[in-house]
Amino acid sequence: MDALMQFVFSGVTVGAVYALVALGFTIIYNASDVVNFAQGEFVMLGGMITVFAHLAGLPLPLAALGAILATAALGVALNRLAIEPARGAPVVSVIIITIGASILIRGAAQLIFDKQLHGLPAFSGDDPIRVMGATILPQSLWVIGGALAVFVGLWAFFTRTLTGKAVLATSNNRTAAQLVGINTGWVMTLAFGLSAAIGALAGVLVTPITLVSYDVGVGLALKGFAAAMLGGMGNPKGALAGGLLLGLFEALTAGYVSSQYKEAVAFVVILGVLFAMPQGLFGRAGTERV
Amino acid sequence: MRLSAKWTQLLILFLLIALLPLFFPSGYYFRVGALIFVNGLAVIGIVILTGYAGQISLGHAGFAGIGAYASALAPGHLGLHPLLAVVLGALVSAAVAWLVGRPILRLKGYYLAVASLGFGILVAMVLSNERALTGGPDGMPVPDPGLRDLLKDLGLKLTGGEFWYWCCGLCLLIGAWAALNLQASPTGRALRALHGSEVAARTVGIDVARLKLQAFTISAVYASVAGSLLAMQNRFITPDVAGFMHSIEMVTMAVLGGVGSVIGAIFGAVILTLLPQVLTVFADYEQMVLGAVMILVMIFLPEGLIPSLARKLRGRGE
């Protein structure tokens, strides 16, 4: 029982990170129907910039804020320079553009920063908290709290604010959204900036636990992508559920079956869900136009 | 006499393969050439799947992995001749593609992308975790097929690089010929109809599910043979051959050169294989340049280099 609780805690912590990456995917997908494979690099940048700004003498909260803002600016630039010029291109081309962007960012990070692993001090100490016979790090609570806060914020944003509804309208039909007076260019800027900022936030929160280096992005992007798909692409509820489920699957597999195959089980589960529910857990069935 | 487009493409390919060695200053170039041909072969498979049938796979390196490890394992464990091991790898890949393809090809777009990606990652994971059999992430040696010695007995002395250059070049020609034949066949036309619109293809009586599965299986065989050739010429193989980055590389080569055309896609393989060789001087910038090239080509030449350039040359008179 104690062991089970321990696995659940570690699963939920990792799952919260996947959920944050998946939420980032969701925002961009909602606004533009693009799946941004560079999402993992935003997480990496959030961690790396904070580490180096902190090393340069900035206090941690300021370094983190700077990292999130800088990453958000990069997200906006990515949209302006690479995604927007290729609008209307087939899915394969867009996949290649965002993968190209991810390789470019990784290459630049390796030059600007370095190839070492870096950590940050935990925000509220390293003393484990005992809960129900298992222990959890205070930093894990930060990660889980961060994911929940972002989820609630996004949910309110998409359902309660005019701007959020404008984003959804742009996704549904860009031309129609323009006709009713929505500035779709600004909506895209907002979506990419917000998504990059959330990715960077995930990087800041998780670096004290898992450390960060220039090449952590690919793995995170794949897991976040899988989590978003598991939940149903474009649905914040799905992204949160998909991320947490994926984290739990991994932790339980690692604990009870085999740590080597923990990632395999995650993908097997995703394949199974997609076979049974081709639109993911919370997705809606689409129809195809001739 | 006017040659059809198919034979013109094959002739160009043949002349390039046959004449380029005249300009090679050293044996190293034969190695690079052989590598280009292997990549080209895998990329033709992507042309059939993505260019003809309009389906995405981000896990095709999984099949290259099956082919490569068939070449590495079958001779020692099953006592098969290395050439038969290539055939075995292709058969296993075809069977796996058929089994995996049935459920996942029902998915579309990004969902298909993630399902195929999951498949590729599973293969790579099995290869690096089954240490007892595959040597794990460190890789394992691959036996030599012994064809070079056979040629030596016949009086033809080739260096290793030269032998694999001609061998892979021949395989590439055969692969390109088969793909161009497929394109011109009724099946090829049905595939293009499917690419245009699945619903419309179905209403004119095309068995869409079966056709997609065929395209997926054929392209898996291409990837598998390419993986086997790569393993045999390097005499060593690691699970990276089945990794995510290799899958991406295949798709990028195809789309960069022009995924709708066999020659275009091979040209994409030429560029992406040469790029790292040229950029070794600027090793630090290699990744940045690669990423920038991927983005720029997709923005400015969305159909890929060759089709876009061909259109420019012909002018706008389509």
3D architecture notes:
The complex is a heterodimer of chains A (290) and B (318). With 290 residues, chain A is mainly alpha-helical. Chain A has a single domain (2-276), classed as ABC transporter involved in vitamin B12 uptake, BtuC. Chain A has 11 helices and 2 strands, in the order ααααββααααααα. In chain A, helix 1 runs antiparallel to helix 8 (184-210) and helix 9 packs parallel to helix 11. Chain A is globular. Chain B has a domain at 28-243. Chain B has helices at residues 5-19, 28-52, 61-78, 82-104, 109-129, 131-134, 147-153, 160-184, 186-196, 198-203, 208-234, 244-257, 262-278, 286-300, 305-314; strands at 140-141, 236-237. The longest helix of chain B has 27 residues, at 208-234. Chains A and B meet through helix 4, helix 9 and helix 11 of A and helix 5, helix 10, helix 12 and helix 14 of B.
Walk me through the topology.
The complex is a heterodimer of chains A (290) and B (318).
Chain A: H1 2-32, H2 39-55, H3 60-83, H4 91-112, E1 129-131, E2 134-136, H5 138-160, H6 162-172, H7 174-179, H8 184-210, H9 217-231, H10 236-256, H11 262-276
Antiparallel strand pairs in A: 1-2
Chain B: H1 5-19, H2 28-52, H3 61-78, H4 82-104, H5 109-129, H6 131-134, E1 140-141, H7 147-153, H8 160-184, H9 186-196, H10 198-203, H11 208-234, E2 236-237, H12 244-257, H13 262-278, H14 286-300, H15 305-314
Antiparallel strand pairs in B: 1-2
Helix pairs in contact in B: 1-8, 2-8, 2-11, 2-12, 2-13, 3-4, 3-5, 3-11, 4-11, 8-9, 9-11, 12-13
Main location (chain B): membrane
Protein name (chain B): Amino acid/amide ABC transporter membrane protein 2 (HAAT family)
Pfam family, one (chain B): BPD_transp_2
